[in-house]
Amino acid sequence: MADKDHQFEQLDAAVVNAALGALAPSFRVDVLDTCESTSTLLLDRAPLGAPSGSVIACERQTAGRGRRGRSWLSAPGDSLTFSLYWRFPAGTPLLAGLSLAVGVAVARTLEKNGAAGIRLKWPNDILAADGKLGGILVETMTGGGTQAAVIGIGLNVRLPRAIAEAVGIQAADLSSVMPFAPSRNLLLAGVLAELAVMLDEFARSGFAAFIEEWLSRHAYTGRTVRILADGAQPVEGRCAGVDADGALLLETAAGMKRIVSGEVSLRTANP
Ligand code: ATP
Question: What is the CA(265)–ligand 1 centre distance, in A?
Answer without folding.
Answer: 10
